[in-house]
Amino acid sequence: MSIPRWLCLLSAAALAAQEPKWPAPAEGDFVARDFRFARGEVLPELRLHYRTIGKPVRDERGHAQNAVLILHGTTGSGANFLRPEFAGELFARGGLLDAERWFLVLPDAIGHGGSSKPSDGLRMRFPPYDYDDMVNAQHRLLTEHLKVDHLALVLGTSMGGMHAWTWGVRFPEFMDALMPLACLPVEIAGRNRMLRKMAIDSIRGDPAWEGGEYRDQPVQGLTGAISVLLWMGSSPLLWQKEAPTRELAEAKLEQMVASYRQRLDANDVLYAFDASRTYDPSPHLAKIRARVVAINFADDQVNPPELGLLEREIKKVANGRAVVLPISERTRGHGSHTIAALWSEHLKELLRATATDRPVTNTPAQRIWDQREPHAARVWFRRVFEQRQPVTAAEIVVACDNHCCVFVNGTDVGGNDAWEQPTRIDVTKHLVSGDNVIAVAARDDGSAAALVLWLDWRAPHASGTLVTDADWLCCLEEQEGFATLRHDDRRWQRVTTLGEVQRGMNVWGYPPKGANADGQIRVLEVDLGRLLEQNPQHGRLVRVDDAESKRTKSQSDVRAIADAVRMYRVRNGKLPESLDVLARKDERGRSELEELPLDPYGTAFVLRVGARANEFEVVCLGPDGKEGTADDVSSKPRK
Fold first, then answer.
1. What tens digit of pLDDT does each residue of 30-42 get?
2. What's the pTM?
3. Angle of CA points 605, 609, 611, to nearest 5°
4. CA separation for the pair 148, 67 (Å, rounded)
5. Which residues have CB under 8 Å from 308's CB, separation 6+?
6. Distance between CA 498 and CA 313 in Å, rounded?
7. In sequence order, what are the residues at sequence separation of 6 or more whose Cβ sits closer than 8 angstroms to the Cβ of residue 412?
8. ∠ CA 332-195-274 to the nearest 5 degrees?
């Protein structure tokens, strides 16, 4: 019998829809020998089951660059994350934790899933583990077995979130970022501890428990503990929608209880609830060095927002931020922690922030300028380089004496107008795989001149820094398209290097303006009258001829305004319509001039535009205030 073609197509589509959008995990077991628990007991062999997705990437010294640890909740396992609303959102191609870029580690905690637990045979003779023991085992899995010595991120949900807090205080230098979800960094107390004690007492109080030596599950005691689990994970808004009648509510309850009974063991549940008894990272939160974004949910019954504990405790974390998401049609109470779409924007921000937290390297840069004319008023620079893979973050740090405009692949990305204070510019979206060009239009206001620049970039599997050095090219004349990749720079000259500048310093190698070498601000107050009383020889005044002084000032102002016109032309591709435009701030708050001055004679400067492209002249009308007379001062050399 032949099958209709349309039915084959529908079947294929249905199968494709059912296939996970993330790679299948590799599963394994790590056996920790002679594992010592916090109370002193030792197990000769402790098994820790785990799943990994993706491959580790290491630097030239073998250090892991892309590892992420993901930790599950009470009575769960790493398999809980392998669902569309979590793995489909994060692990799939293009996701924030794309398995092609990241090495994802999903362990089963002690007492859970495929790891060593009481139900394996020891029952109540199994060592009474706590959260410190569970984190220690995870640490050994990473360092001894998977050879991971650094984590880009620790993300945990519920109990896993508390493990993330524990990681932060126990191993503060081990990770770049922490994201604990649906938990609090305080001792388990109040209603939370009462509920856990109710679950423990329910199991222990069932005669069928028999001190943990039961053959069949103690149904009454286990059901009582399951009732606690159900209440902790309840979502009033969702459950009312799913079960709006008595019959539907009772049927849903029966279904959920049966599902839990099928997979839970009473001793394992008892141990899992009791493991939180020693948890309390609160006194140690200041030790955390990683960036932290802690996320809770307004409809979470376990961690209700009215307690205000997260907001209070996050203040102890140097780089911490607390987020409480409001109740919505999409939230699921405590279980919202596994609906990644609810909080993925916060994860995106966290990954982006940690990518630029620290310099990629401490490589010093070289001060550069034109080798033929060290005091040239205008110099154009270029540097072409190859970027072999897409970047996840890229930042330029630049300082120039006195002004510069920076371009990446032809796009104006910002600049620096204060040599005392380097400017930081995010250029992530402007770099491409393959060839790139950084171009700089620089202007000097007189005296010494120099440019210094760092480009730090990070990719999933690599990182690097490009700096100003002897490989840069320069030119003393503006050329159309100089900032684009395909510009012909074969006649450009190599720059002159003027000395080394350490990262964090300004263009002349000193701490940024307002700070000393320790970063502390110093204020110097001077009583000029008292100074002159003590040093009368310093109080002598020298009279300068007023006419000569004004002419010198007008010449200086004309040059500065002409340079501002040229900078405007570089930024905008055309000459300004009037000189007033030079003092108007653009959408980035930048302008070519802070303000447009009058000339020393109280008259406005004049802009003349020539017949040829880009030809212009800035003129001071002189003391007579008339255009075209002999006392005019022009930016254009006279023949």
1. 999 999 999 999 9
2. 0.61
3. 160
4. 7
5. none
6. 49
7. 405, 406, 483, 571
8. 105
